[in-house]
Amino acid sequence: MPLLRTRWFGRVPYAEAWDLQRAFWEGRVSGRTPDDYLLLLEHPHTYTVGRNGSRSNMLASDEQLTELGAELFFVDRGGDITYHGPGQLVGYPILALADSKRIRPYVKRIEQVLIETLAALGIEAWAEFGYPGVWTASGKVAAIGVRVARGVTMHGFALNVNTELSYFHHINPCGITDRAVTSMAHLLDRPVTIEEVVGELIPRFASAFRYARRETQLGAFVRGQGRPRRFEVDRLVEEGTFAAGPDDPPSTERGLLPGEPERPPWMRVRAQMGSGYTDLKKLMRDMELHTVCEEAGCPNIYECFGQGTATLMILGDRCTRACGFCDVTTGKPTEVDIFEPFRAASATEQMGLRHAVVTSVNRDDLEDGGAGIFAATIREIRNRVPSCDVEVLIPDFKGDRQALETVMVEKPSVLNHNTETVLRLQRDVRTAASYGRSLALLARAKWINPAGAVKSGLIVGLGETKEEVLGALGDLRAVGADIVTIGQYLRPTARHRPVHRYVHPAEFDEYRRFGEGIGISKVESGPLVRSSYHARESLEASKPALLPVQVEHR
């Protein structure tokens, strides 16, 4: 019984979104996920030309495109040239069609969904034979361009909500020269929000494709007409962000912020500062190295240090971002130390590690985000300790694929990048990061090195629901993640985001069973779990499943 998972990603650069939908398409085709997806988003200024199009309908030169701040892509959908930009709702359905040869009925259904959505908001619209899309008396309000490969759909529709229509003047939209383009805001003569449109569109899309509505978040479903399928709707991301306070922290009572729950017994950690702990701490200081274990206040530091295990943090100890859950210092970063990879390799050798974990602060000040230092560190560790597996926990590099490739060319044993939280809480929890970007990075890493393990992590207790965590696990599986860690959020200081709840160990076990049940090779889930907890054991557990699966478009 397939589920329709709807995902509102916000504004996503076109190249990332293209890879994102390819990842979900691949997941559906290969069987990594049994579920269909409806990806909803906006793009920055972008022009795309489909298989049936030509550059001749682009009226702007490359220089003019640069002045417009727009990109041009030649893509594998049907149709000619179109524009995507802020204020336009773009939908990419990733659906397994019962009959993949009947593409026209599929397009007609999408047209009907858009027509009904517009009608619900007071706009009369219709479809016209020979002109795919949706039309009004003032012109075209929505474009449609699709692709069906291996029985699964890609690309989709673009509905002009509050779109700046002047960008259409630089093209012949869809190759048509004698008909206008319009927007919902123009037709209604008032501002229209994308959230308003999404609220009307999703249930109509689900109804048109015969998904039954989910009545509660606890898994009760009702049957609709036709196939007994279901759909879920992500709550839209709330505006505003949570950031650490400036100078004076909020007042606490017995160490608790207002409304925070008491820390339960299973969250109490005993400090055991034996010789292993003190020796490793001294080694890190002697070699002028940092560990994320110390910088982020990891609760497992005594256990891991006592066993001679640490997660090295390169590129300094100051982060260019200020996420509401993290205790790493934010500020102006230090100069890049080109000798840091050599010291990291030496420390790995002295500790006798068989599995080295290397992470970093975010370095948005660097052109490559620090990717070159990551690559050098992998090389040097391998030179010093050839038998050592190297796991890298990387930032998102602001979506720069070339930076990711710089790291991946060294073929790390594990490429780890944390998703951190569920889609709804992304903007509120992660500064300058996004759920869609993280999923695209994980998919790209798997494509570049199919034989390597791809890993991600979630923190819970931030305000998410159980259903949202299960949905995030489904997304991670769909894009190819092999290993997932799930741990309890612990507020580092009074300035950080409050703890919403302490998740019971039984619920962590439920997440583990669900994740491994849907095909994730290893889910390390528990109150004290962190990204590199039992890292070597997780890699060993996932190795039998690390056989590359190539799914080609045809």
Fold blueprint:
Blueprint lengths: L2 E9 L2 H17 L5 E7 L3 E4 L12 H7 L2 E4 L6 E4 L3 E7 L8 H18 L5 E3 L2 E6 L2 E11 L2 E9 L23 H5 L5 H15 L2 E3 L15 E4 L42 H12 L3 E2 H4 L5 H6 L4 E4 L25 H12 L3 E6 L10 H14 L4 E5 L7 H8 L5 E3 L9 H4 L5 H14 L4 E8 L5 H13 L4 E6 L16 H13 L4 E4 L9 H8 L12
Parallel strand pairs: 1-2, 1-12, 3-4, 11-12, 14-15, 15-16, 16-17, 17-18, 18-19, 19-20
Antiparallel strand pairs: 2-6, 3-5, 6-10, 7-8, 8-9, 9-10, 13-14
Helix pairs in contact: 1-13, 3-5, 9-10, 10-11, 11-13, 14-15
Give the tally of β-strands: 20
* Strand portion: 15-25%
Please tell me the total number of domains. Answer: 2
Portion of residues in helices? Answer: 25-40%
Brief rundown of the structure:
This protein has 554 residues and is α/β, with parallel strands linked by helices.
